[in-house]
Amino acid sequence: MDEMQNPSADAQLDPRFGQAAIETQDDLEGDTLREECGVFGIFGHPDASAITALGLHALQHRGQEAAGIVSYDGARFHSERRLGLVGDTFSRREVIERLPGSVAVGHVRYSTTGATILRNVQPLFAELNAGGFAVGHNGNLTNGLTLRRDLVRGGAMMQSTTDTEVILHLVAQSRRSRFIERFIEALRTIEGAYALVAMTNKKLIGARDPLGIRPLVLGELDGCPILTSETCALDIIGAKFIRDIDPGEVIVFDDNGAQTHKPFPLRPPRPCVFEYIYFSRPDSIVHGRSVYEVRKNFGAQLARESHVDVDVVVPVPDSGVPAAVGYAQYSGVPFELGIIRNHYVGRTFIQPTQAIRESGVRMKHSANRIAIEGKRIILIDDSLVRGTTSKKIVRMMRDAGAREVHFRLASPPILYPDYYGIDLPDRGGLLAATHSIEEMREIIGADSLAFLSVDGMYRAMGYPGRDSTNPKFADHCFTGDYPTNLTDQDQIEHQPRQLSLLAEAS
Ligand code: SF4
Asked: Ligand 1 atom closest to Cα of 483?
């Protein structure tokens, strides 16, 4: 995956969507699209917090900036939220002991809305007149800024700068009698992408936006229900996978069992296709498909569409590995680990100075000279955003003696920004949106460059191609076909001063 602004730390917010500008450099994968956040919740288990911590650890790839857990012990809510990795805090017994109770919800964060400051760490918690309420959110609301402006004008006092907080205020301000009605009324007001895990003193609640853009699954451990972003978080604790939470479904667990609500008109689902391309862990099953198998199919389809005569297939680790396996298996060209990743460097928060970025690269990834010297190689990566990291990779292969360096991306060119929780830069920052394939080839210095076609992406998923009348996925970063209204975006374009002021304040 190539050069992407990783919003982290509290930097100047991009007034349109609060995207931070500080880079977290994680060398060859450093500038990657980062999924924004993972959620986990469990009901009725005596070790609820310890299990939630393990679940969040398995979801660490969805957010490395901060983590939090809220639990309820039958009398009181307990909350522990920290900046940093899950293991930095929640591996410590004394912290888990401060989270008693049999219900817990947790969140790992990567900020796209709101800076990386403690008050933005989720789950967010508030004492409402209906009692305590905690919520963790994966996704991004496309009318969050507009709702926030209206709530603040109505006298609401915001505690965080996240879009998620508007959900708390909408529930608090609802005049409905039952809690679940208040919650559903709030969901009917928000738009965009959300997978939510929430809790009250009696309930664990899960909800997915009506199009199912972000994933949410149901599992079970020792008879206790679990809600989480990916099946890998069930595997780590030996929990059984039950099913995906349906798009537009609100599921509630309490002492009486489970109740499902479907408050939205049925619409064709549009799950985010990037969960398969990059976000979800390869060992997760997303909407019934193995992420690993789908990525291998992307690689095989890439070989079908744009093979070139080479000696070895080299993945850009780790995210390019499954597609490179698929490419090698289909083309019959040997697969070689031409780039070695040092997994013990961990993610580094580096101030964005070119020199440091350069050293960052060498620290984590290095060329495996024996596998590539004198060879014609084809590099396989999952996607390209800005092109700067791809450029470094090509140069590193040439410096290590590769005779030819061909570059292939196991996803189509990214042409449009995302407003559903992924920190894609705006169009100006997307290399493919501003350059032809040939210009990009020259910029990264490869002998040839090709992307998976949009139809090829759908074929690799088992469809005849993309049906523009009924696309099966949210794929708008490739197609520009946004599946929901973009209220904030529209407003910013028409009333820039008002909302961008709000964005700057958030
Ligand atoms: S733009 Fe759409 S397809 Fe691309 S990452 Fe975002 S939600 Fe997924």
From this structure: 2
Task: Determine whether the shortest distance from the Cβ of 474 to ligand 1 is under 6 A.
Answer: yes
Which tokens hold the place of 437? 């394939």
Fold of 13-270: Glutamine Phosphoribosylpyrophosphate, subunit 1, domain 1 (3.60.20)
Task: Please tell me the predicted confidence (pLDDT) of residue 11.
Answer: 39
For residue 15, what pLDDT band results from cuts at 50, 70 and 90? very low
**Using a 6 Å cutoff on CB, does residue 420 contact ligand 1?**
yes
In the chain, which segments carry CATH 3.40.50.2020?
290-479
- Among 327, 305, 282, 270, smallest CA distance to 470 is for 270
Closest protein CA for atom 5 of ligand 1: 274
- Closest to 236 (Cα-Cα) out of 33, 94, 40: 40
Is residue 224 annotated as part of the catalytic site, yes or no?
Answer: no
Residue 313 Cβ contacting ligand 1 at under 6 Å: no
Contacting residues for 303 by C-beta, under 8 A, at least 6 apart = 326, 327, 330, 331
Q: What one-letter code names the amino acid at 354?
A: Q
Which residues contact residue 102 at a Cβ distance below 8 angstroms, ignoring those fewer than 6 apart? 43, 44, 45, 46, 48, 72, 73, 74
Residues of each domain in the chain carrying CATH 3.60.20.10: 13-270
Fold for 290-479, please state it. Rossmann fold (3.40.50)
Q: What is the pLDDT of residues 146-202, one digit of tens each?
A: 999 999 999 999 999 899 999 999 999 999 999 999 999 999 999 999 999 999 999
- Closest ligand 1 atom, residue 33 Cα: 5
pTM comes to 0.89
Residue carrying structure tokens 């990009």: 440
Residue 318: which H helix or E strand, with range?
A: none
